[in-house]
Amino acid sequence: GENVEQHPSTLSVQEGDSAVIKCTYSDSASNYFPWYKQELGKGPQLIIDIRSNVGEKKDQRIAVTLNKTAKHFSLHITETQPEDSAVYFCAAETRSPNNDMRFGAGTRLTVKP
Amino acid sequence: KAGVTQTPRYLIKTRGQQVTLSCSPISGHRSVSWYQQTPGQGLQFLFEYFSETQRNKGNFPGRFSGRQFSNSRSEMNVSTLELGDSALYLCASSLGQGEEKLFFGSGTQLSVL
Known about the structure:
The complex is a heterodimer of chains A (about 110) and B (about 110). Chain A has strands at about 5, 10-15, 20-25, 30-40, 45-50, 55-60, 60-65, 70-75, 85-95, 100-105, 105-110. Chain A has about 110 residues and is mostly beta strands. The relative contact order of chain A is 0.34. With about 110 residues, chain B is mainly beta. In chain B, strands 2, 4, 5, 6, 9, 10 and 11 form a seven-stranded mixed beta sheet that branches. In chain B, strand 4 and strand 5 form a beta hairpin. Chains A and B meet through strand 4, strand 5 and strand 10 of A and strand 4, strand 5, strand 9 and strand 10 of B.
């Protein structure tokens, strides 16, 4: 089955700096790669996603890149703000239409004002 | 549009007991997935239901079971509770067509004493 690895497990940056979180996956059949943000006491919320036919996607301060050959994808947050502090999860989905989303272990991002 | 609703929010049980958790998906969503979240293991996929049928299953023992009703609401049951079952149980709903965003509830925090 799919195995998703995520690094780093914790990340601390100064407000205004950039943050990068990286994930690798094992199943070359994976086609869908979402990123979720989880704040304390809440469930994960989708912040951006990318499909295997796209190499990069951007939404304001957030961007995701995908390298299918190397089987890795990354989340980039620019101009970080204190409200970006949360746990971020990458995920990969292999089978469609079955929902079988496999998640990375998470990255706790802290943005210091 | 109401989000995914999970009840109860908190549960305390003792070893050997059983527990039932409930999830109401977003209106119109036919797929409900369940995840177990622990600090050490991250988000682990339990199973997915679509149109009252279990469509996919993760690597959990048979003590973990679920079902889905005709209105897409889902329940998850854990029998013969063990200390290691203490976790946040998250439910996520989607249309069920694959490669699409999951909408998570806030979870049920289960503590087994």
